[in-house]
Write a structure and sequence with these properties.
CATH architecture of the largest domain: 3-Layer(aba) Sandwich
Order of helices and strands: EEEEEEHEEEEEHEEHEE
CATH class of the largest domain: Alpha Beta
């Protein structure tokens, strides 16, 4: 991890930061707005990446917000959840093992396919959550047509006799409850409630984030009632 200072976000996937007194560009693996985190002068953490195909030499992965670190890498939650299921650390999925990752279903690619001893299948989509206001975690922080489509695919899977779930992984440790962000994307909130009504499981977990690890610490209540 390399400590730097955030300067500005040039576009959805590139940020300008100050590293060792020099301005460098870093890749942001997150299409959300992240406005409350990406403020000039905020402490951020980078990882140096090699590869001739890359436009930048660094990934911006953590942001210090007040007194805690927040993971902003949207690629991380998939692995964190898969590892937790494989280790039997999530009681809600204790009967399952990870059969495959990045599995095609319908017109979407979902994050995980789980199976139990009776070959019952459970399709899981994992969403990265970074926005927390007064203890309430919310998703999304920018409109997401893709996210709404995933919910429709999960509902369709239930209709075909499979299990299905969406997991909101809150990549920080100060959330007390989770709710869809109707203010930013009311369509996603409607699709989430509809999916839950059709039998899709909706779960939210918060994490402890350090430069060394990101680990699920606690399940938080999900509030789906209309606001």
């Amino acid at each position: 991890m390399l400590k730097a200072r955030f300067l500005e976000r040039e576009n959805r996937f590139t940020a300008l930061v100050e590293l060792d007194g020099k301005q460098v560009k870093a890749h942001v693996a997150n299409s959300g707005r992240l406005r409350e985190l990406f403020r000039p002068g905020n402490e951020v953490y980078l990882i140096k990446r090699d590869g001739s195909h890359r436009a930048t030499k660094y990934d911006l992965v953590l942001v210090r917000y007040e007194d805690q670190l927040v993971s902003v890498d949207a690629r991380v939650p998939n692995k964190v959840v898969a590892d937790a299921v494989a280790a039997g650390q999530l009681a809600d999925f204790s009967q399952f093992t990870v059969a495959r990752r990045e599995v095609r279903y319908g017109n979407s690619r979902l994050d995980l396919l789980l199976e139990d001893e009776r070959n019952n299948k459970c399709f899981v989509e994992v969403k990265s959550v970074t926005l927390v206001e007064n203890g309430t975690a919310m998703f999304p922080d920018a409109p997401t047509l893709r996210g709404a489509r995933h919910l429709e695919e999960l509902a369709a899977a239930v209709g075909e006799g499979y299990h299905a779930a969406v997991i909101f992984l809150i990549q920080r440790d100060d959330a007390l409850v989770f709710t869809p962000n109707d203010r930013t994307d009311p369509d996603f909130g409607q699709k989430l409630r509809a999916a839950a009504g059709k039998g899709v499981g909706v779960y939210a977990y918060r994490c402890r984030v350090t430069p060394e690890l990101i680990v699920i610490t606690e399940k938080v209540p999900v509030k789906l009632a209309d606001i």
